Amino acid sequence: MAEAAWLLPDFVSFLDERGQTTVTIQAALAWVRLREDEVVTTVSPRRITAVRGFAHYLSGIDSDTEIPPMGLVPHRQRWRPPFLYSDADITALLTASDAIQPPFRAATYRTCSVCWPPPACASARRSASTATTSTGRKACY
């Protein structure tokens, strides 16, 4: 909802510039693709989602309003690759944690660093205890 609050004024300005008084699927797609590169990102699906909600609301007021259907704009989830800590990275973190004051806090950070990632996350626990890469580096997710 918060994202729609800053996206929709731009869409309405776009419609005004084109002299359109009704939301159409064609106008929504034109606005979505206006700032889109050739690369598929998560921005376009978020923009069309904002327009879809707005059009759904307007359809109760204006029967000519067209609601863009789901799946109109492709969406591809992109995951960041995990950061891989080397043994030297882990040693540097543990050494740096010893310098933290007061000593109790240093011990807390050292303990957290050794136990990282937190045991509450099963996949993280698995990765911390068993996952290594082909180069022998520990994987931390």
How many distinct folded domains? 2
Strand share of the residues?
Answer: under 5%
Low-confidence stretches: 118-133
Radius of gyration using CA atoms only: 25 Å
- The overall pLDDT, averaged over residues, is 78
Percent helix, as a range, is 40-55%
Strand order in space, largest sheet: 1-2
Largest sheet data? 2 strands, antiparallel
Structural class designation: mainly alpha
- Please count the beta strands (DSSP E, at least 2 residues each): 2
Order of helices and strands: HHHEHHHE
SS field, number of helical segments = 6
Shape: elongated
End-to-end CA span = 30 Å
Task: Report what the structure shows.
By secondary structure, the protein is mainly alpha-helical. It has 2 domains: 2-58, no CATH class; 83-140, no CATH class. It is 55% helix and 4% strand. The protein is built from 6 helices and 2 strands. The protein has helices at 2-18, 25-34, 43-58, 87-98, 103-115, 122-130, and strands spanning 83-85, 138-140. A two-stranded antiparallel sheet has the order 1-2. Helix 1 packs across helix 3, helix 2 packs antiparallel against helix 3 (43-58) and helix 4 packs antiparallel against helix 5. The radius of gyration is 25 Å and the shape is elongated. It starts with a helix and ends with a strand. Mean pLDDT is 78; it is low at 118-133.
